[in-house]
Write a structure and sequence with these properties.
Blueprint: H1 10-16, E1 23-29, E2 35-41, H2 42-47, E3 51-54, E4 78-83, E5 89-90, E6 98-106, H3 117-130, E7 133-147, H4 175-179, H5 182-195, E8 199-204, E9 210-215, H6 220-239, E10 243-246, E11 260-268, H7 285-305, E12 327-329, E13 336-338, E14 348-350, H8 359-376, H9 399-408, H10 410-416, H11 418-436, H12 441-447
Parallel strand pairs: 1-6, 12-13
Antiparallel strand pairs: 1-2, 3-4, 4-6, 5-6, 7-9, 7-10, 7-11, 8-9, 11-14, 13-14
């Protein structure tokens, strides 16, 4: 590994140029998208021939519990972590000079761990590649800045702005609303620049303290890596200014939820041309097949796009969430939107994913639905040209029902990988069971003395 610094991206090399690198964080995403791994002195990283973690990290629930292993005896063997130096990036909020490096998980025979989320996304991208296709994505990240919430029993509140007032709701696209927490935004820009990330735009969303960051389009794995890094970056920027950043789907009562909209297109790997557009710029049958795949398989994918009980609080009719399977051109009430674009940029926007989803798994399952559509060759139902908010319920509205639909879709499970699907189901049912043991304030207020 003597030449490992030569493999670093330009931004990482510039960050450590002329300075002593103190620490390297060897990380990967677990099922929830939480960064797991280990940090070590840079001098040790340089000499270390292999890095190990137990494969049980993929059985850990969001509460810190452990799900039963559905794919063999529970012996916690070590995985080998392989550094992907193309992901190396600064951790500019640390006191010392630190780099983060995403690692891929392989078994002791060198085969990819099939249930590691980054490997699941690579599997789906590989299926596209086998057909001569290259998927392109552009994610949009919505999240809230909130006042520090030290007591989980207390409701979450909007943050205090520079005016001394709490951030106001219903100020979508307001520049002055963004300025209320401008110092946090400044740090996000500075951190992103140090890490070599390109932000396509930042805007105020409809919720109090709710912000959206758009990322430039690109390779699905690269963009999932960026979101994985961005979540940590944004949280660290918020903490510098005495507030929290949260990616919960629905953190504040009576406010909109936070989505991770995913723009998707597919190009011919040889020619680089968008397969959704014909020679004269018209929509192609492939585009219609892709939409049909989304309509036919998204109900089964919701368990990954809305992975927690809180996720379904975002799925409230008439509350700014397009919770339907309709598609339409430039229609933000539809779950599947075709944005205005030239033929080269024709794409489909999946507006159903929550920002609480693991970015690797959210992008993977969304692309998997489109892939199945391309392979099945079916036609979508007619375009919705009106208000799709008023449509019929077609999606599961709780985690248990979503997991049942996910379990029943054999085609989708084959695309994602059977072992991953078994493990994911085990982790999520464990979390759901834990949640059902908790008694909420609503139950105590309305049921304790009345029923």
């Amino acid at each position: 590994m003597s030449d490992w610094k030569d493999k670093l991206p330009d931004a990482a090399r510039e960050y450590i140029a002329g300075r002593r690198l103190d620490e390297v964080e060897c990380i990967l995403a677990d099922i929830a998208g939480v960064a797991r791994g280990k940090a070590m002195p840079a001098s040790k990283f340089l000499k270390q021939p292999s890095f190990f973690l137990p494969n049980s990290i993929f059985l850990q629930t969001i509460t810190g519990g452990w799900a039963d292993s559905p794919i063999g005896a529970y012996t916690e063997p070590d995985m080998i972590l392989v550094p992907d130096f193309s992901t190396a990036t600064a951790a500019p909020w640390t006191a010392d000079i630190t780099l983060q490096v995403i690692h891929d998980a392989v078994d002791q025979k060198g085969e990819p761990i099939s249930y590691a989320p980054r490997n699941v996304l690579k599997r789906v991208v590989g299926l596209y590649a086998a057909e001569g296709w290259t998927p392109i994505v552009a994610p949009e990240m919505e999240f809230f800045f909130v006042a520090k919430n030290i007591d989980p029993n207390m409701p979450v509140q909007p943050p205090m702005g520079r005016t001394g007032r709490r951030a106001a709701a219903r100020q979508a696209y307001s520049m002055s609303a963004v300025d209320e927490y401008g110092k946090v935004i400044d740090d996000i820009y500075d951190f992103a620049e140090a890490q070599g990330f390109e932000i396509d735009g930042i805007l105020q969303e409809g919720g109090a303290g709710q912000v959206e960051i758009n990322l430039a389009h690109g390779d699905p794995v690269d963009l999932a890596d960026e979101i994985f890094f961005f979540k940590r970056l944004i949280r660290e920027a918020a903490l510098r200014h005495d507030c929290f950043a949260t990616f919960m789907a629905k953190p504040i009562e009576d406010e909109p939820g936070s989505a991770m909209h995913i723009h998707q297109s597919v190009v011919d790997s040889k020619t680089g041309k968008n397969i959704f557009s014909g020679k004269k710029g018209e929509e192609t049958p492939a585009f219609m097949h892709f939409i049909a795949g989304m309509q036919n398989h998204l109900p089964s994918a919701i368990a990954l796009l809305a992975p927690y009980v809180n996720s379904y609080r975002r799925y409230v009719p008439d509350f700014a969430a397009p919770i339907n399977l309709e598609w339409g051109r430039d229609n933000r009430t539809t779950g599947l939107r075709v944005p205005i674009s030239d033929p080269r940029s024709r794409r489909l926007e999946n507006r159903l994913a929550g920002m609480d989803c693991n970015p690797y798994l959210g992008i993977a399952v969304s692309l998997a639905c489109g892939y199945l559509g391309l392979k099945e060759g079916k036609t979508p139902r007619a375009e919705c040209t009106g208000d799709a908010y008023m449509g019929e319920d077609e999606l599961p509205y709780n985690l248990g029902d979503a997991l049942d639909l996910f379990e029943e879709n054999a085609a989708l499970r084959e695309v994602l990988g059977p072992d991953f699907c078994k493990l994911y189901d085990s982790v999520k049912r464990n979390e759901h069971k834990e949640y059902l043991q908790v008694i909420s304030p609503w139950e105590r207020e309305h049921l304790l003395l009345n029923v």
